[in-house]
Design a protein that fits this description.
homodimer; about 400 residues; alpha/beta; Aspartate Aminotransferase, domain 1; 4-stranded antiparallel sheet; about 40% helix; about 15% strand
């Protein structure tokens, strides 16, 4: 059927098409394919027994209140529980600075809503989380894409860009970073870069969006303090996104935006017209979970599970990958970033991978404009240990063929 | 503290301020005030026992699946359950035409996202749902506000406006109506107007957003078919919003957008960047609830409860209200719309009402630009029967004083 509503859509929607990436990912849903393409937490990491218990407790204790509309900013007891937990983890904040949102993705949507006019510029890592790019694109942003190295965003290059922009009378509306176990690369920004980054944000008078879904998923090494910790309390510039999707369950859709009071007020008004409030029922369960001390205890279990899977994947990579292939060795998170030799192309190679019953996300999906032709993101949190071994062996064979073909060609 | 981020906000956010209405409503939260201002369903109408049972069942039967990320369009079994229920209630649709959203408010947000550029025009009732106005305003819409009479939107006046717009080369992006037990007026559009409305939408080549949160809450009279029923299946133009907030519980945040396939595809892409997916856990519970046949059975209980409250409020209005005051007598829904004699002003009167421990929503909140100075919305679903009697007596006294003052002045 030919489209009939084309003259009614907004400019932002005219560009909304099912992406090439989504079409590729559809291919990976066949049951015989071992997919490293997802970004899902492992269901073995869900504390089902505790959730059953707390769900009954919430219905018994709070009854109808847990089923009614809630306030737009979120349940007070949940915001208090988050504040206490965050303060214990070097994220200084008060409950009033916390807005409960339906996943960090909604945080990115609301921030885009209050900050972005069409054509406004957002600083992003090159590569970065594709859902972040999608949220900003939906508000017609342009990107200032700053390359990464093995230590995350090149803060020196960011400074050059900001200086150039200042000379040209431009200013980014926000700087978006995932400082710890970055998606897609798994890289972590060292402390000196964190400090320099927040200094730059002050110097160039913008705000920093610190997206930290994976920070608690550390399997080795010492925890780093979030950038929010180094922010100036008298002139706060960090908007911190935290979520329960990777540390409890994603299906509750509970995350937080921690922001200076002035921004929080705008966020709440924007959220009011967006969805009135987040799911009350799961907010009550989450509040019991965090205030009951379950979250920190549960992290030990998750870290053992995912840390083991990371080790298995790294071992399989060492064993099977042909010469010339490079990958990150992240101390935490859910992803490895793998780069093939010059001349290879992970989009062109994708059908061959699917044919050989293994899948990944093509690197180019994570780039604001272009890049990542030789790269791919592979996930280790979701597949079974055996799938990781078998899948990496399959993937290594496909890559070996690709390298041979390119040399022959 | 003076605002520090003013040069960073988007144009749409610069206008986002805590509204006068919200400030007024804050006054009504004192426990000694009988508030008719809310729009909340009554917690006595929540099927707590059944929800407890189904929640356990979902965790036992689906376990981790009910806690994982879900698809953006929503749980297949829930969309199938809705489709079956909708088809039995004269809302023809297939599961593929249904998108699950986190409340109808999110439906309005997503529709604004895909249809509205700044300055685009939306047809609304004058008055209409204030959350609808807020959603459209957040995307910088302008309004074509069409007056209502006791039978809802004046479709004859709409036609004049559309004709005038056509002559001027303008076209509304959508027509937004709440045809049954409208918020705030409680009015219902008769069948002939429904048919004329969908004809006009075809004739003037736009889309109709039919928001129907209250349609099932009918306490007397015969049900009318939704506008969607009269849509042309070969050229569908109705986008139908239905919700569980008033028929099950609001705290699950589950609603639907039923739209032609082309629009559904855009909606799903827009929702992907907005929040990835709605709450999986409550989608599973809702699917069990609807497919288990509980919804239709439960409606009888709600109708008895709310119908009784409506009767009590109408009786109290008849008994206490002074001459010259007029109000609607809706056959369903949750609200009466009350209009005071010439010269009265419900905003000015508001502090006196609060002083006398009774509250309402000022009429002007529901108007796109201006109007409603003499009107107010009062809710009968939430207060107890006794609060309705006592509160209406209080309100009548305040109004009596106001009328006297105006005559004296």
């Amino acid at each position: 059927m030919k489209p009939v509503f084309d003259d009614l859509y907004s400019d932002r929607a005219s560009g909304m098409r099912a992406s090439e990436i989504r079409e590729l990912l559809k291919l990976t849903q066949r049951p015989d394919i071992i997919s490293f393409a997802g970004g899902l937490p492992n269901p073995l990491a869900f504390p089902l027994g505790i959730i059953k218990e707390l769900t009954q407790k919430v219905l018994d204790r709070y009854g109808e209140k847990a089923l009614q509309y809630g306030t737009t900013e979120g349940l007070t007891s949940l915001r208090e529980a988050f504040a206490e937990n965050y303060n214990a983890h070097d994220i200084p904040c008060t409950p009033d600075e916390i807005t409960i949102v339906g996943g960090s993705q909604q945080g990115l949507d609301l921030l885009s809503k209050i900050f972005l006019n069409p054509g406004d510029e957002v600083v992003v890592g090159d590569p970065t989380y594709l859902g972040g790019l999608a949220a900003f694109r939906a508000f017609q942003a342009r990107f200032v894409a700053v390359p990464l190295d093995n230590d995350g965003m090149r803060v020196d290059l960011l400074e050059e860009r900001l200086e150039k922009m200042r000379r040209e009378g431009r200013k980014p509306k926000m700087v978006y970073v995932i400082p710890t176990f970055q998606n897609p690369t798994g890289t972590t920004l060292p402390t000196d870069r964190r400090k320099r980054l927040i200094d730059l944000v002050h110097e160039y008078d913008t705000v920093l969006v610190e997206d930290n879904p994976y920070g608690r998923l550390r399997y080795e090494g010492e925890p780093l303090k979030p950038i929010k910790y180094y922010d100036d309390p008298d002139d706060p510039r960090v908007i911190y996104l935290g979520t329960l999707s990777k540390t409890l369950v994603p299906g509750f859709r509970i995350a937080t935006v921690v922001a200076p009071p002035e921004i929080t007020r705008k966020l709440v008004i924007a959220k009011q017209s967006t969805d009135l409030c987040s799911t009350t029922f799961t907010q009550y369960i989450a509040a019991e979970y965090i205030s009951g001390g379950y979250l920190d205890a549960h992290m030990r279990k998750i870290k053992t599970l995912y840390g083991g899977k990371r080790n298995i994947m790294l071992k399989a990579m060492d064993e099977f990958m042909p010469d010339g292939v490079e990958w990150t060795r992240p101390e935490g998170g859910m992803f490895l970033w793998t780069t093939l030799p010059e001349g290879c192309n992970t989009v062109e190679m994708f059908p061959k991978a699917v044919e050989n019953k293994v899948a990944y996300v093509v690197g180019k999906a994570f780039y604001a404009y272009e890049g990542g032709e030789r790269s791919m993101r592979i996930n280790f949190s979701y597949p079974t240990d055996e799938q990781i071994m078998v899948g990496i062996e399959r993937l290594a064979k496909v890559i070996e063929e690709e390298i041979k073909d390119k040399k022959a060609g």
